[in-house]
Amino acid sequence: MEPFEVHILGCGSALPTTRHNASTQIVRIGNRQFMIDCGEGTQLQLRKSHVHFSFIDHIFISHLHGDHCFGLIGLISSFGLLGRKTPLHIYAPSPMEELMLPQLEFFCKELAYKVHFHTIDPSKNSVIYEDKVITVETLPQKHRIPCCGFLFKEKPKPRHLKGDVIEFYRIPHYMRKAIKEGADFTTPEGNIIPNRNLTSDADPSRSYAYCSDTLPCPQNIPLIEGCNLLYHEATFADDMKERAAYTHHSTARQAATIAKEANAKGLVIGHFSSRYTDETQLLDEARSIFPETWLADEKKCFIVT
């Protein structure tokens, strides 16, 4: 199967610390690389993580709080300094384009590539990106300003050809794509060979859900049902749940409850408050509800399986 990886470049919350950078992730699916959010310091984190700048063509911004987008203008400028020619697509709530255009005009007048802004509606679940392999959907969140998460889903994959059977029937190459997609084969003598004899099951499609910044959103559970990996903010421990509710964030226990009810395969918690110098308390609280929980950390890579 193609690689499906989530690289954590930043997992802190709004107030900068020496332990965590602001929210940024890279989702790698095959040879595609997508960025989720772009907090301050993202360029340095890309360097430290050995992620290639040139492969990032699509950036998804969850909301317009600075810890999720202050790194964007610097990254765009660096792309220009590196000689980028291919277009860059930015998906964000309004008014991202209105805010960015004066900065581009002032700091990035002579870019050799186009920056395309795509306004998304964070209040709706909709497909905002699609190619031959994946779709990206918005997941409405509950925060102090319009905010959405993102769901990356592989499309159904073709079935596997049984090489020895294909060769036995001397099936021409031009017919094999249709057989991968479920077609039977008719021999020159008129015999029908069922597809189940020619192929084996396709690899299962995988999915990754990103939910930050937000109060718990049970209404999204049907959308992320069975996801292979869920990233959910866990800004506070459970003893700070009143503070979490006031600031429209989640506790580690709440994040784990969402993962459990969604039948997720695994959970990564992040967006940690600067008050924590050790996130063990958050991890323990989450694991008491959902054992397959891990802490996000800079330069950590999670494999979506």
Q: What is the CATH architecture term of the largest domain? A: 4-Layer Sandwich
Rg from Cα:
22 Å
Strand % is: 25-35%
Count of domain modules: 2
Uncertain spans, ≥5 residues at pLDDT below 50? none
Order of helices and strands: EEEHEHEHEEEEEHHEEHEEHEHHEHEE
Q: Tell me, what's the shape?
A: globular
The H-level CATH homologous superfamily of the largest domain, spelled out, is Ribonuclease Z/Hydroxyacylglutathione hydrolase-like
Q: Largest beta sheet, briefly?
A: 7 strands, mixed
Query: What separation lies between the terminal Cα atoms?
Result: 10 Å
Give the overall pLDDT as a whole number: 96
Q: Which CATH first-tier class of the largest domain would you pick?
A: Alpha Beta
Strand order of the largest sheet: 6-5-4-3-2-1-18
CATH fold name of the largest domain: Metallo-beta-lactamase, Chain A
Helix-strand category: alpha/beta
Number of strands: 18
Output the number of helix runs: 10
Helix content: 25-40%
Notes on the structure:
The chain is of the alpha/beta class and 305 residues long. The chain folds into two domains: 4-157 and 203-303, Metallo-beta-lactamase, Chain A (4-Layer Sandwich), CATH 3.60.15; 160-200, no CATH class. It is 26% helix and 27% strand. The chain has a seven-stranded mixed β-sheet with strand order 6-5-4-3-2-1-18, with helices on one face. A hairpin with a 3-residue loop joins strand 7 (127-130) and strand 8. The protein is globular. The N and C termini lie close together (10 Å).
